[in-house]
Amino acid sequence: MTVGRAERRGAPTMDARSMGTSVRRIEGPDKVTGTAAYAGDTPAADALVLHPVQATVARGEITAIDTAAAQALPGVVAVLTHHDAPTLGDTGDPEHRVLQGTTIHHRGQFVAAVLAEHPEVAAEAARLVVVTVDEAPSTTAFDPDGESYVPSALGNGQPPDSTVGDPDAALAAAPVVMRAEYSTPMEHHNPMEPHATTATWFDDRVEVYEASQGADLARQTLATLFDTEVVVHAQHVGGGFGTKGFLHAGSVLTVLAARAVPGRPVRFALGRRQMFETVGYRPVTVQRMALGAEPDGRIDALVHDVIGATARYKEFVEPAGGSSRSMYAAPHRRTSHRAVPLDLDAPTYMRAPGEAPGSFGLECAMDELAVALDLDPIELRVRNEPSVHPENGLPFSSRGLVECLRSGAERFGWSTWERAPRRRLVDGWWHGVGVGAGTFPAFRMPGSTAEITFTGGRYVVAIGAADIGQGARTVLTQIAADALGVDVASIAVEIGSTEVPVGSIAGGSAGTASWGSTVVEAADRFRDKYGDAPDDGDHADAATPDNPWAEEYAMAAYCAQFAEVAVHADTGEIRVPRLLGVFGVGRILNPALARSQLQGGLVWGLSMALHEESVVDPRFGGVVNHDFAGYHVAANADVRDVEVAWIDEDDPYVNPMGAKGIGEIGIVGVAAAIANAAYHATGVRVRSLPITCDDFL
Ligand code: MOS
After folding, report:
1. How many Cα atoms sit within 13 Å of 648 on the Cβ side?
2. Strands of the sheet with 574-584, listed across from one edge
3. Which of 6, 142, 477, 483 could lock onto 523 through a cystine, CB 3.0 to 4.6 A?
4. Of the residues 248, 318, 349, 468, which should be mutated to test ligand 1's pocket, given the most ligand atoms within 8 Å of the CB?
């Protein structure tokens, strides 16, 4: 069903003057001149350095801790253990129960901490703490056929299973059936800026500089734990990728330690290796796909059964089957998720949690089905384009998938390639092309407040948004300018702190949609009250308005990713000379920032396809390749042409700006496009990430 123009009445998008232009990053000069302070380098005279003591076994009970030698080291100010830690309030998150008992849940868990004047002393003292542990048997190796359970919910809050019709019967009756198992590894976020906390405890409050995707969520967590007033600052954040959404143990440990030395700042900046131990990761998935189709390509049955790892002490289940609920039409369908509990640090949200690994299973399976049907993989997708959401029957507010596929094919030169694999050998390299599609939900988080005050000839717009590199300051300035009908030079945006009104997190690709809708609401109120000629001190505020269309339309962003791959005929070395992503993401608010963010997403996808994999040593439960030497993230030499394009899309239902989130959709479908291109190049089907040389030998 197509949504007619008449039905669109009542949901206009705002007129754009500044929106749609490439306003330069407001904090750009601060960043390139090195004056932008991050949590770990916020000036703090006299700061004490925290060095943690970490568990060296995956599971067990602490029977004794001897801190005498550490205490005796000159320059050591305090050594904290569970014996002297305060009892913390309950946030419901087991990661926050720092130094609250003797149980070890995972290797790397913080079991004590040293505060010292200098980092070298703190590190040496931590080494001198003797922890005696009664080790218990642990399971840290993922076995998809081992003990598993039905999780209570997926990481995105969705139910673990969904079924429409009778997929097993439909598969049994389908003329063409494609079944295959795909797997994705454990991956760590590795933002350029590691987690860091600088905390000072005063009489009436604790003040915290935190590397965080949301200052207010950090404040709420710390206020619950410590039952005190908490002020959090997060002005600049060097990448989040999901790991800086919820507070992890290191932040709690730092605030806990600061309490022991009132008035004195305490700093804990995680080292790169510690980034593999206590701040989450994307868990392993095994995805069992089954597609049953008619000879003309129409899919009768679509099954996506996922088995994924979770931590035994804290459930987080990667919603890898999520996009299979909405991508393609099929009268009979099932998604399911089973969780395998392991004695590891808890997994968490990472770069399109669910959609990124899930699109590897679904989009490779679609490619394999196209091969089985001898059909163009783009045509197969187009033939299975749903007219309404295949599970809940809602119309789509807008859905640009087919347009993305078609315009991408044109731009990429898709039709110039023969469909059969292993046809193009150039200078010893097999070349091929592949496509992968994807989706990411468009929604709005509740709970922000925006305040607008006219002062000194400018509109000060305050909202606790987080700029994690995406350019929140800049784009909120543009939205406010258009909502108030003024030039961007008349706007001053204040974000990144709990000293401005509350903002929801920069997460779920919903930051701009959530804060922007709130700013527009406050601007509307401001203009209703004061018109366009305000006086000094005029003021209005607003909370995030509900989206009145949220229950009436299915809302999501779409993409089509194209890859050209070259595989060396002798060595199996794999390279990606060309990537193209075409996006249907509503209105683009700032083309320069959007291109940068989407391009970054494509690079994440390349990195996921060819490089990223955390390897757990099952004997000890630790990640062995815990640094940039062992865990490779795509670098300049890996990245060649990465092109980003978008379709002209107007979606009046998502928010007043007409913009869908672009934070995560860039990665979705990329790994599948690369794997499909590798098949096309070589005739070798790789179903397990990352794809490496040995897959072709
Ligand atoms: Mo994103 S993984 O929701 O920060």
Report:
1. 0
2. 424-426, 429-441, 556-568, 574-584, 641-646
3. 483
4. 349
Residue with the smallest CA separation from ligand 1 atom 4 is 242
Task: State the closest ligand 1 atom to the C-alpha of 240, by its place in the atom list counted from 1.
Answer: 4
- 616-665 pLDDT, tens digit per residue, is 999 999 999 999 999 999 999 999 999 999 999 989 999 999 999 999 99
Q: What is the pTM of this model?
A: 0.97
pLDDT at residue 11, as a whole number? 64
**Within a domain: 523:** yes
Atom of ligand 1 nearest to the CA of 348: 2
CA 131 – ligand 1 centroid, Å: 36
For position 545, what pLDDT does the model report? 97
pLDDT at 7: 43
User: Which residues, including other chains, have CB under 8 Å from residue 402's CB and lie 6 or more apart?
Assistant: 381, 382, 385
Contact residues for 97 (Cβ-Cβ < 8 A; gap 6+): 88
Rounded Cα distance between 347 and 246, Å, is: 12
Whole-number Å distance, alpha carbon 660 to ligand 1 midpoint, is 15
Does residue 473 belong to any structural domain of this protein? yes
Is position 673 within any domain? Answer: no
Which atom, in ligand 1's list, is nearest to the CA of 243?
4
Which 3 state secondary structure label does DSSP give 169?
Answer: helix
- Across the range 426-452, mean pLDDT stands at 98
For residue 505, the domain's CATH number is 3.30.365.10
pLDDT above 90 (res 469)? yes
Q: What per-residue string of b and e applies to 103-134 under the rule 16 or more CB within 10 Å gives b? A: ebbbbbbbbbbbbbeeeebbebbbebbebebe
The pLDDT score that the predictor gives to residue 3 is: 39
- Residue 625: its pLDDT value, please? 98
Could you read off the pLDDT of 675-693 as tens digits, one per residue?
A: 999 999 999 999 999 999 9
Mean pLDDT value across residues 260-273: 97
How much distance in Å is there from the Cα of 213 to the middle of ligand 1? Answer: 9
User: Residue 192: how many CB atoms within 10 A of its CB?
Assistant: 10
**CA distance to 24, 35, 267, 552, 590, per residue, from 30 (Å):** 13, 5, 23, 44, 20
Distance of CA 596 to the CA centre of its chain: 16
Q: Which residues pair with 134 in a beta bridge?
A: 61
Question: Is 664 one of the catalytic residues?
Answer: yes
Which band of pLDDT confidence, cut at 50, 70 and 90, is reported for residue 1? very low
Which residues' Cβ are closer than 6 Å to ligand 1?
Answer: 213, 240, 242, 245, 349-351, 353, 507-508
Please give the number of the atom of ligand 1 that sits closest to the Cα of 349: 2
* Closest by Cα among 433, 429, 436 to 414: 433
State yes or no: pLDDT of 2 exceeds 60: no
Taking residues 179-188, report their average pLDDT. 98
Please check whether residue 481 lies inside any domain of the structure: yes
The active-site residue out of 187, 193, 521, 664 is 664
Residue 4 confidence (pLDDT):
37
- Answer for the pair 417, 540: CB distance below 8 angstroms, yes or no: no
Between CA 460 and CA 437 the distance in angstroms is 41
pLDDT at residue 319 tops 80: yes
Structural domain harbouring 519: 5-36+444-543
